[in-house]
Amino acid sequence: MHSKILYAIFILLPFAFISPGKFGAGHRDFFILSALVYLASKVPDRYLKYFVYHLALWMGFLFIGHFNFKHVLPWYIPQYIVANAFYVQMWVIVGLIFYIGIIESDVKKQSVFLIIRCLTIIQCAIGIFQLFGIDPARSVVDIFINTKGVLADRTPTGTLGNNNFWAAWLAISSPFFFDLDKRRFLNIPFRWVYFLPVIFILIFLSNTSTAVLSTAVGMAVLIGKPWWALGIFAIALLYGFFIDTRPIHLSKRWSKWGELLHHWQESWKTIIFGHGPGSHWLIDYTATFEEWAYKMRLKNESLIPHSEWLSALSQYGIIGFSLLIGYAVNIYKHDRVLFSAFIISVVNAIGNHPMHLAPSAFLIIMIAGLSEKEKQNNRQHCTAFKKWGRLSKKRDLDMFQRIKTVFIN
C-alpha cells in the first residue's frame, strides 16, 4: 500500500503545475499534500487514518477552489481561507511525523513518564513563583529584550503563556504521578505520589474549570471508578446549564459556541462535511481579507472557540467529528495511566484547545503514540501465545499419533 502511494505521487507530481499564483507553485502544494496522504497511510488506527484522509480531501478541494476559472468552477475560495487551511495541514503533518515516530521508535514508556513528571514539577515551581508576583519566565526573556506589563491578578501560566494551557498540562500529567514505589534523589527517599496534592491545589488555583473537571474525571478512571467519572461529568453539565446563572461567567463562551453551531448548520453540506480546516464561525466567505480583518477588530473577537471538539465539528462536519469520536473510543485502555491521561485530554478539549499549543499538543501526541505502541505490543504477545498454543496442540497430536501407531502395530 505504501509503495503504491509513493508510485502515484512520483507519477502525478510533474503534472501538478497549475496554481493560482506563480507557475509551478502547484508542484509545491501537491508535494506537501502528498506528504499528508502518505503519512495517513502509515497511521495504524483506522479512525485516525480516515480522518487524515478526510483532511486531505478538504485540502485538495480548497486548492482547486482557489483557482478563479471563469465559467469552469462554480465557487471561489479566498486566499486567506486557503492560508488558514495550509497552516492546519502543516500542523497535522508535523503531529503525524512525531506520532508515527513514537510508535515505530524504541521510546521507553518509563523514560517518557519520568520526563513528563520532571517537566510538570518545573511548571509547578514556576507557577508557584507567579502566584506571588514573581515570573521566572519573564526574567529569562528580559535578558534578551525589554518586556512590559505584569501578570493579570498573579495568574500562574508557567512557560505556556496562558493559565488554561498551564492547567491543562498539569491535569493531563497528573496520572503519571500515581506511583507508590519508593524512589531516591540525592539519597533522599520520596514517592512521586507526594506531588499530587500540590498539583491538585495548583490546578484549582488556576481558575480553570475545564482543568478541574477533567482532572476529577481522569482520577476517577485511574482508580477504576468509571461510573464516578460519568457522575462527575453529569454534575458539571447540570451545574453549567441550570445552576450557574451569573451574568458574566461563561456567558461569552456559551455565546461563541452557539454562534459556531449556528454557522455549522448553514446547509446540509456544512453539517456533513464542515466548513473546512482552518475555518471558524466568524469567517465571511464573501468578504476580502481586509474587510474581514476590519470586522474582527471591531468585534474584538478571538478566532478560537475554546473547544477542540466544537471546532472539529464545525471544520470537518459529522464525518470528521465521528471519526475523531471513533478514535477516542477505540484508544488502548489496558494501561490505566495512559488511558486516564488520554481521558483527561479528551474532557479538557471540550472547553479548551490544548492541541493549538505545541507543548500540550506534543504531550497528547506522546500519550496517543505510547497507547498505540502498547496496543501493538499486546497484540503481538497475544498472537505469539496463540501460535505457541497451536504448535503445542499439534505437537501433542503428533505424539499421540506415534504412541497409537506403536501400540496398534
Report on the architecture of this protein.
With 409 residues, this protein is mainly α. Helix content is 68%, strand content 1%. The protein has a two-stranded antiparallel ribbon. The protein is globular, with a radius of gyration of 26 Å. Mean pLDDT is 79; it is low at 246-250.
Span between N and C termini? 55 Å
Mean pLDDT across residues? 79
Count of helical segments?
16
Unreliable residue runs: 246-250
Strand order of the largest sheet: 1-2
Sketch the major β-sheet. 2 strands, antiparallel
Strand content: under 5%
Can you give the helix content as a percent range? 55-70%
Structural class based on helices, strands and sheet pairing = mainly alpha
Number of strands: 2
Q: How many domains would you count in the coordinates? A: 2
Q: Tell me the overall shape.
A: globular
User: What is the gyration radius calculated from CA atoms?
Assistant: 26 Å
The helix/strand order is HHHHHHHEEHHHHHHHHH
